[in-house]
């Protein structure tokens, strides 16, 4: 018989329980009991003590996110930026919102964070609705960083109010005003209005400009699942929870259709993160994306990600300690290559994701890197052989492989380029 025990613990005690691997741990959340699926040691951070008028208090990092009611909408706010009188969501049954009465700076302390296995990514911390870690490393971190390096101007739409400078900057994102526009929004209609107004101004200013000289723009929407409709807000303010009767999927489909039409002839793109839910179809077991099929039909690329534990050191050797996350990525849809290919990306907690992560495995799978004894070998265009142990393969070699692919138009086996080349050869014959 399975034994279940419920008790209150400190974060330090929770860490010991998690690391012991002896228990399946679930935390109380506004969405019922939910499992912890990842753990993060954050190091020493500046702290604040937050006190509420309903007796709740919490000691947390200044960049810790708590959920507050603002203009009829639940939003996330940094603990260090809470104002006296802010309405914080708590687990009190009859008085769910506590008014902030004090925010007092404290000395730095060792901090921990974790990820909750639920799409809302929140939990009760000292009875206060708090946000967990995870999920935005790739889109709001690495994709934006690399877009900036390539001269693309990103517009980051944060629907969770969870992406601050202290989180973005360590990932290499330039948060200065001339390199990034970040806006916080909660309503689908507001996002649509922002994109529409921006594109009208963009077309007015650059329609007659040489296409090669037009600024390159990337919208990043993180995340789709947290967007609300006006019906959601109105019902919540009226104390009703009937739902929007299917308006949200229709609104999202309309949003993506309009974005596709507006962006078509310009160097403007859109990257969106969203949550998934487990499939109930035994014949189609892949996780399903919430919010309807509109974004899937209109998207050029759809990548499904699943988080696993990273138990390797810097040299690729197995360890017993969990050092980060392995993101198993599966290409569910692509208009540019063969779909349903998979790659695994490693995200160590202490360094973040390496932009070369997953390339060695991909090159090996495609036969570009071949096994030679206990090493991997690449033969370059001059016939020179490059042999390395897997852990010894450098970025220089990976750059060489990618450069030679580009110069000689080499493509991955099974790609659309291969099919095109085959067709051309047949025609010539």
Keywords:
429 residues; alpha+beta; Endonuclease - Pi-scei, Chain A, domain 1; Rossmann fold; 4 domains; seven-stranded antiparallel beta sheet; four-stranded parallel beta sheet; 26% helix; 33% strand; globular
Largest sheet: 7 strands, antiparallel
Tally the helices.
10
How far do the termini sit from each other? 72 Å
Overall 3D shape: globular
Task: Give the second-level CATH assignment, the architecture of the largest domain.
Answer: 3-Layer(aba) Sandwich
Overall CATH class of the largest domain:
Alpha Beta
CATH topology (fold) name of the largest domain: Rossmann fold
The number of E-state strands comes to 21
